[in-house]
Design a protein that fits this description.
This protein has 487 residues and is mainly α. The protein contains 22 helices and 4 strands. The strands form 2 sheets. A two-stranded parallel sheet has the order 1-4. Strands 2-3 form a two-stranded antiparallel ribbon. α12 runs parallel beside α19 and α19 runs antiparallel to α21. The structure holds protoporphyrin IX containing FE. The site of protoporphyrin IX containing FE (HEM) has 28 residues, from α10, α15, α19 and α21.
Length: 487
């Protein structure tokens, strides 16, 4: 078994190494990709313009090919908890980022850190732990003194190994969802279940139990999606073989998985405190793109003289919703489409390729329309309704964790009231992030547009079309939100 894992890892590494150039550090300055279309892509564009889209009819699609686990989906199975001893100086700091930030000594410790070569990192899981550790240190280094005393340069003993590891993985040199959630967990009791009680984080950031809750609840959302992810293959194969029963059955599983994801998402309310999330945690997830606190980006010393810009960590970088959107045919256009497409560069490259593969397949929605089968149409509609429902639930969460605290922070600053401790955190929260997500988006417009674009794919003539699953009665949060004028 052990040797299986070893060979799986090294073959994964080889593929990932091949892909390492896929993330272009110079993408911001050199739009070369746009100018170097090969003959196939030109043909494809011409055919698309003519309305004869080229569709991938290869079959079958396999999860293994895209390094997606049967049991864990996009989650990294059994992440390593230790690096080879050579990298002890990194791990010693990474394990203490929170304490070092609160004693204002993280930057000093990083200045004293030796510049280590990365060639002793051999397996995919070693690289993932190194990326998690180095990018956590990076967030702490940049944001240690809050939004007003940021830095312009990341020192070479951190930036050089971070960029090397990132290049080998094909991931950006910043903390991303694939680090904090997908590769940052372990079971307390190895034989126990994957439950909140039995899970813990490998590395953490300021915010105590709320950080644990935020990353682990998101992990549970990823886990809840796994049966649906596996059924994507059956949907695609069912369409390929014109098998209506197969597609219907598989779509039903997708629909149930989206519902389970929503149930998991709601656990956020139990495990994450909004004022801690808003006032303390968020800044450490923020990036240096579209962020007024770091308008010039960040120089990665020893890598490139020109500053680089990268978005911060966000679950918009999770491959789950992107996969379901592509399967169902949800089209995101304009700014929100551009934002979501950009987020795909913040995923492990093989997961991004999986999403692209789904989108290259013949349209499921057209299949549903052509078949005009009542049961199939109903199941498709149900699936869309569940996705809309998930997005509504997410909007409620964002309202509670960002919109309401942002409004309260403005009020507190304006009134200069005497403050109790929990409100103090909100008052001190970074103002640059007030109406922005950690991924750098303008929040509510983006989320509502994306939700409405999901509704657009309901089957037009269907009697139950455009009927979202019954909404829960208006909660206090929604009421409060409806009184705000954030947009
Ligand atoms: C306290 C919990 C959460 C908050 C405050 C939150 C906040 C946000 C914000 C502000 C955005 C806009 C993009 C950005 O700039 O980051 C966003 C997008 C997104 N988030 Fe969350 N999020 C939370 C939990 C989750 C979880 C657990 C998931 C599940 C995987 C998730 C999935 C998404 C997706 C897929 C998007 C892209 C928009 C879409 O496809 O609907 N979020 N989130």
């Amino acid at each position: 078994m052990v040797s299986d894992k070893g060979s799986e890892e090294s073959s994964l590494l080889t593929v990932e190494q091949k892909e390492r150039e896929s993330f272009s550090y110079r993408a911001q300055t050199v739009a070369y990709a746009r100018h170097s279309l090969n003959r196939e892509s030109v043909t494809s564009i011409i055919l698309n313009i003519m309305g004869t889209e080229v569709k991938n009819t290869d079959t079958p699609l396999s999860l293994k090919k895209f390094h997606i686990s049967e049991d864990y989906g996009f989650i990294l199975p059994e992440p390593l908890t230790e690096l080879p001893v050579h990298y002890k100086p990194w791990m010693d700091i990474a394990r203490n980022v929170t304490e070092l930030i609160s004693s204002h000594s993280l930057r000093l410790r990083i200045h004293d850190m030796p510049l280590l070569e990365t060639h002793l990192l051999q397996t995919h899981r070693e690289l993932r732990l190194a990326h998690l550790a180095l990018s956590m240190m990076t967030m702490g280094y940049v944001w240690q003194e809050g939004e007003r005393e940021t830095v312009k340069v990341l020192p070479r003993n951190l930036s050089v190994p971070l960029c090397e590891v990132s290049r080998r993985l094909g991931m950006p040199p910043i903390l991303i969802h694939a680090d904090t959630v997908l590769a940052n967990w372990k079971k307390r009791d190895p034989d126990g279940p994957l439950s909140m009680e039995n899970l813990e984080l490998l590395l953490t950031l300021p915010g105590g139990e709320s950080v644990r809750g935020f990353f682990l609840v998101t992990l549970l959302v990823e886990l809840a999606a796994v049966p649906g992810l596996k059924s994507i293959l059956d949907v695609i194969n069912g369409v390929h073989y014109n098998d209506v029963a197969m597609v219907t059955k598989a779509l039903d599983v997708v629909s149930q998985a989206i519902d389970s994801m929503k149930q998991a998402l709601k656990l956020m309310h139990e495990y994450v405190d909004p004022s801690i999330f808003y006032g303390i945690m968020r800044i450490y997830l923020s990036g240096w793109k579209d962020n007024p606190s770091m308008p010039e980006g960040l120089v990665y010393e020893g890598v490139q003289e020109k500053p680089m810009e990268f978005s911060g960590g966000s679950a918009a970088q999770s491959s789950i919703l992107h996969s379901f959107d592509e399967l169902l045919g949800v089209q995101h256009k304009g700014d929100s489409g551009a934002f979501l497409r950009r987020m795909r560069d913040y995923m492990p490259p093989s997961h991004k390729r999986f999403i692209e593969d789904i989108s290259s397949r013949p349209s499921l929605r057209n299949f549903v329309l052509q078949q005009a089968d009542e049961h199939l149409t109903h199941t498709f509609e149900q699936c869309v309704a569940r996705l809309v429902d998930f997005r509504n639930c997410h909007i409620n969460i964002v309202t509670r964790y960002i919109t309401i605290p942002a409004s309260r922070a403005r009020q507190l600053r304006a009134n200069k009231q005497g403050l109790v401790d929990e409100l103090d955190a909100i008052r001190k929260a970074p103002t640059a992030l007030e109406e922005r997500g950690t991924g750098g988006s303008g929040i509510m417009i983006l989320l509502k547009t994306v939700r409405d674009e999901t509704k657009d794919i309901y089957i037009p003539h269907c009697t139950n079309g455009n009927q979202v699953l019954p909404d829960a009665p208006m909660t206090a949060i929604q009421k409060a939100a409806s009184e705000l004028t954030i947009e």
